[in-house]
Amino acid sequence: MAKPIKHVFVCTQMRPPGHPRGSCGANASAAVLVAFQQQFEKRGLWGRYGLTGTGCIGPCGNGPSVLVYPEGVMYGAVTVDDVAAIIDEHLLGDQPVERLKVPAEIWG
């Protein structure tokens, strides 16, 4: 397997209802992951780009969270409708989607 140009991580962490940290899974992150999978298939991105569903990647209150490496860009409150923009602008266009980026303070 060749090294991917970029790698997308989609948090699918589930916590019990009412958990103080919340969870991306409770905010439809599974649908976001499926949307990425469908777009990767449709556009022939498998092999050039990586995609992984993950456990917690940090800012639970801003979920669903999506993290793109190697840049280390974190997106928050991502919806199925945002997936095409992340692919078009960030993966293919090398420009992060500013409106979806979490505040820099997230990284502490």
Q: Describe it for me?
A:
With 108 residues, the protein is α+β, with helices and mostly antiparallel strands. It has helices spanning 29-43, 83-92; strands at residues 7-11, 50-54, 66-69, 73-75. Strand 3 (66-69) and strand 4 form a beta hairpin. The mean pLDDT is 92.
Name the descriptors.
108 residues; alpha+beta; 4-stranded mixed β-sheet; 4 strands
Task: Produce a short descriptive summary.
The protein has a domain at 1-12 and 58-71 and 79-98. It is built from two helices and four strands, in the order E-H-E-E-E-H. The protein has helices spanning 29-43, 83-92, and strands spanning 7-11, 50-54, 66-69, 73-75.
Write the layout of secondary structure elements.
Elements: E1 7-11, H1 29-43, E2 50-54, E3 66-69, E4 73-75, H2 83-92
Parallel strand pairs: 1-2
Antiparallel strand pairs: 1-3, 3-4
Shape: globular
- Note the quaternary state here: single chain
Biggest pleated sheet: 4 strands, mixed
Total strand segments? 4
**Poorly predicted sequence stretches spanning 5 or more consecutive residues:** none
Strands of the largest sheet, in order across it?
Answer: 2-1-3-4
State the end-to-end CA separation.
34 Å
**Helical percentage:** 10-25%
Order of helix and strand elements from N to C terminus? EHEEEH
Please tell me how large the radius of gyration is: 13 Å
Please work out how many helical segments DSSP would assign. Answer: 2
Average predicted confidence as pLDDT: 92
Beta-strand content bin: 15-25%
